[in-house]
Each structure stands twice: as C-alpha cells, then as structure tokens.
Design goal:
This protein is an all-alpha fold. The protein is 67% helix and 0% strand. It is built from 12 helices and no strands. It has helices spanning 2-13, 24-57, 72-94, 97-100, 106-118, 125-144, 154-161, 164-188, 193-222, 231-257, 260-283, 291-313. The chain is globular, with a radius of gyration of 22 Å. It starts with a helix and ends in a 48-residue tail after the last helix. Residues 1-19 and 319-361 have low confidence and may be disordered. This is Probable magnesium transporter. Homodimer. Pfam families: Mg_trans_NIPA. One of its GO terms (cellular component) is plasma membrane.
C-alpha cells in the first residue's frame, strides 16, 4: 500500500497520471502539437487554392497583386494557420520544447499529402520515404521525451532564465545576431543563405523559450494563480514580440532571395537544433533522463532531419526527371528564361520551370 501511495504521489508531482510512460501534461502537449501540425500543414494548401482562384480573376500575388485579400478561401487558410499557431503556443505550456519543436516537421507531411490529393502535385517515391522517416523520428522522440518540469510561478521561470548557463547562451546568441545583422548581412546577405537563416534560427531559439515562459504564465493564470501581476510575465511578452518580428523580417528576406526548397530544410534544422539546445540549458530537460533516452532522442531527431531534407529535395521532382535547383533564384529574367547572371530558370529536363520563392505564396 505504501508503495502504491508513493507511486501515486510521484505521478501527481510529475504533472498528472501516467499513461504509457507519459505524464498528463505531456499528452496534452503532444495532442496540441499534433493538432498544430495538421492545421498549419492544411493551411498552406487552402491558402494556395485561394491564391490560384484569386489569380484567375485578378493580379497574381507572385507579381505583386493583392486580389487574394478579397478571396474567402485564402482567408480560410490564414485563419487555419492562426489556429495552428495558437495550438503550438499552447503546446509549449504543457510539454518540453524537445518534444514540441521537432513535431513541427509533421506539418510538412500534411502539406505534401494534401498537395498530392487536392492540388494534384504528385509526391515522388523518395518524398514518401521522407514522410515515413519523419513519422518514425517523431514517434521515437515522443516515446522518449522527458517529463515536463513542475513550475509553480513565472518567477520560477525567471530564475531559470537568469542562471549563469542560460545567460551565457543568450549573450552568445545576441552577440552573434548583432554581428550577422550589422557586419555580414550588408555584404553577404544576397549571396550566402546561412546569414539570414542564422539570424532567424538564433533569435528563434530565444523566442521559443519566451513563448514557453509566457505559456506557463497563462496556464497558471487560467488555473487560478494570477501571473499577470508579475513584471516578468510582461517582460517575457515583450521578448516574444521582439523576437517574432525579427524572425519574420529576416525569414521573408531569405524566402525572397533564395529558393524555398533550400531555405525550409536548412531553417528547420538550425531552428530546431538551437531550440533544443536552449531548452536543455534553461529547463535542464536532460537532467531527468538516462544516457540511453538522450541518445535515442537524438537518433529520432536525426531521422526527422533526414526525412525533412528528403521531402524538400524531391518536392519538385517527377518520376524520371530530376531538375537541378539553383541555390539562388533571381527575381527578373529575360524572355529566353535566363537571368542577367546567365542562370537558367528552367531545368534541362523537358523545360520544366523551376519554382520561385514567390510562387510559394
């Protein structure tokens, strides 16, 4: 009886009853993260259908038109994306970032599958393999994710954020970001893809930590422990807004300058890696795990990365044709399909046009 009581108490201290090795909070975070991936993945398809419909009767978004703003289907896609982002925000309040962040890759699978069904954009056989790898990697991480740390106030999160290890990480991130923005972007922003993506990923790792802190504050507030009276809550809110605006600015620059099929997997890899590192430092996720669990999680993460790269590498491939994608797609081309630099905008195989970043809108 004593053993049963201690087990029950341990389960309660871990955030809820245990189901298949996962706490109740982790299960809530998992469900929210999966819901987020579905909504975000579906939103891309709905928005694209709206863009196509608007482009048929007005000026296309790819050439500077805004007729899609009058298209209900596009707005349906935008609302779907907002719902997905809200679910993702809520997921961080319940589950560790090492569980939530990698599951973002599942939105790529949803998008690819729905594109095959609704837009008739056929998925290459290696793209299907990429989907399988993402699912296997995500399942591995879910089954071995650490339990969410029990936090009773936003002040406790602030203590974690001001510990020397995380302050050192945040200082390195901010210093590197400023160097990239003021030293490297003016010279190399238009030619080196890692400059813009580096800024997005570094700032993104801090934004996720702030989002998680804000999510915890809101969760505690809704449960009856008002956290809005603490100045730390509003400080985390300010950091969230500043980081997200910075991410959006430089991610748009990257998408406008380089091929989307190259930007997406590199950004996902760097952003997820740095977010996991920041979470491990701030919330000490791995302190509650064995070396075997940690290695297994890393294997799952690498599997997801492999699947993501494979999906993006084959997104413009048709069976029997393998167009070579240039790293940078120029904005303007002459009538022969060549840019001023002499870079062909069409593949050698049957003259299939390559996808420009604006086409992804």
């Amino acid at each position: 009886m004593a053993t049963e009581a201690s087990t029950s108490a341990a389960a309660d201290a871990g955030g809820g009853s245990w189901v298949d090795g996962m706490s109740a909070d982790n299960i809530k975070g998992l469900v929210l993260a999966l819901s987020s991936s579905f909504f975000i993945g579906a939103s891309f398809i709905v928005k694209k259908k709206g863009l196509k419909k608007a482009g048929a009767s007005g000026v296309r978004a790819g050439v500077g038109g805004y007729s899609y703003l009058y298209e209900p289907l596009w707005w349906a896609g935008m609302i779907t994306m907002i719902v997905g982002e809200v679910a993702n925000f809520a997921a961080y309040a319940f589950a560790p970032a090492i569980l939530v962040t990698p599951l973002g890759a599942l939105s790529i699978i949803i998008s690819a599958v729905l594109a095959d069904i609704m837009l008739k954009e056929k998925l290459h056989i290696f793209g299907i393999l990429g989907c399988v790898l993402c699912v296997v990697g995500s399942t591995t991480i879910v089954l071995h994710a650490p339990q969410e740390r029990e936090i009773e106030s936003v002040a406790e999160v602030w203590i974690l954020a001001t510990e020397p290890a995380f302050l050192f990480y945040a200082t390195i991130v901010l210093a590197t970001t400023f160097v990239l923005i003021f030293r490297f972007i003016p010279q190399y922003g238009q030619t080196h893809i890692m400059v813009y993506i580096g800024v997005c990923s570094l700032v993104g790792s801090l934004s996720v930590m702030s989002v998680k802190a804000l999510g915890i504050a809101l969760k505690l507030t809704f449960s009856g422990m008002n956290q809005l009276i603490y100045p730390q809550t509003w400080l985390f809110t300010t950091v969230v807004i500043a980081c997200i605006l910075t991410q959006m600015n430089y991610l748009n620059k990257a998408l406008d300058t380089f091929n989307t099929a190259v930007v997406s997997p590199i950004y996902y890899t760097m952003f997820t890696s740095l977010t996991i590192l920041a979470s491990v430092i701030m919330f000490k996720d791995w302190d509650r795990q064995s070396p075997t669990q940690i290695v297994t999680e890393m294997c799952g993460f690498v599997t997801i990365l492999s699947g993501t790269f494979l999906l993006h590498k084959t997104k413009d491939m048709v069976d029997g044709l393998q167009p070579s994608l240039p790293i940078r797609i120029p904005k303007y081309a002459d009538e022969d399909g060549y840019a001023a630099e002499g870079i062909p905008l069409r593949s050698a195989a049957e003259g299939i046009p390559l996808r420009s970043p604006r086409a992804a809108e």
